[in-house]
Amino acid sequence: MRKKVIAGNWKMYKDVNESIEFVKELVLKQNNIPDNTDVIICVPFTSLFSVNQILKDSKIKLGAQNMYYEDQGAYTGEISPLMLKSTGCKYVILGHSERRTYFGETDDIVNKKVKKAIEKDLTPIMCIGETLQERESGITNQIVEKQVRGGLNGLSPEEISKIIIAYEPVWAIGTGKTATPAQAQDVHKFIRDLISKISNDKVASNLIIQYGGSMKPENAKELLSQPDIDGGLIGGACLKVDSFYGIITA
Ligand code: 13P
C-alpha cells in the first residue's frame, strides 16, 4: 500500500523571516498530519538552513526546488547537491515546467540532475507534464513518455525506486484550471505502466506519482482518491498554512 506524499513548492516566495514564521505555524499544527501521509516543503535556497532548524525534530520534511548536477566547481550562481544536504534538505524538485520553460532545462539536463541527486542520497521529485497545445493535439501520452524516458535514461530499477514523479499538466499550473480526476488518473496510470516497462512491476507499483496543478482543499480529496494518484505537488495553496493543511487532511 503506497502512502500519500503531499509536497509544497513555495517557488520564489517568502524571504527568510517569512519562511521561519510560516514553518513555526506549520509545526504547531503537525498533529493534523494523518499517519499514512508524508509532508514535504520545498523552500527557496536562502531559507533552507533556517527552516531546517525548526523542522528537524518535526514530522515535516525539507526539500529544495532545483540543484546543479556537479558536486562543486566554477559554476557561478549554482547550488550543488552536497550544499543542499549540508542544510538538512532530503528532497529536491527537478525539471519543474517553470525550469524547463524559463531556464531552458531539457530532458537531458533533468536526467543528469536526477542521477546526481540519487547518487548523493537526495530524493528527486521529477516533474513532467504537457502544455495545453500538446493536450489539444492529442499527444499528452507521447510527451509524458518522452519526458519520463528522457529523465530516467540509464537509471537502474533500483535507482528508479528512489524517485518521486510529479505529473503537472502545464496548463493547470497557477491557472485555477485543474485536470479532472479522470484526466489525471488516466495519465498517472499511463506513467505507472510505462515505469513497469522501463523497470519492473514491483518498482512501478511502489512508485509515488503526485499530481500538481491548481490543487486546493476543495478538489484535493477527489484527486487523491484516484487509484494512481499518490499525493500532490502544491504551489499557490501551500503558501497559507490553513489551505496547505486543508489538502493534507483531505
Ligand atoms: P499551483 O498549485 O499554483 O497550480 O502550482 C503547481 C506547481 O507548479 C507545483 O510545483
Please describe what this structure looks like.
The chain is 45% helix and 16% strand. It contains twelve helices and eight strands. Strands 1-2-3-4-5-6-7-8 form an eight-stranded parallel β-barrel, surrounded by six helices. Helix 5 (107-119) crosses helix 7, helix 7 packs across helix 9 (181-198) and helix 11 runs parallel beside helix 12. The longest helix has 18 residues, at 181-198. The two termini are 18 Å apart. Bound molecules: 1,3-dihydroxyacetonephosphate. 1,3-dihydroxyacetonephosphate binds at residues 9, 96, 168, 173-174, 212-215, 233-237.
Detail the topology: elements first, then pairings.
Elements: E1 4-9, H1 16-28, E2 37-42, H2 45-55, E3 60-64, H3 81-87, E4 91-94, H4 97-103, H5 107-119, E5 123-128, H6 132-136, H7 140-151, H8 157-160, E6 164-167, H9 181-198, H10 201-206, E7 208-212, H11 217-224, E8 231-234, H12 241-248
Parallel strand pairs: 1-2, 1-8, 2-3, 3-4, 4-5, 5-6, 6-7, 7-8
The structure holds 1,3-dihydroxyacetonephosphate.
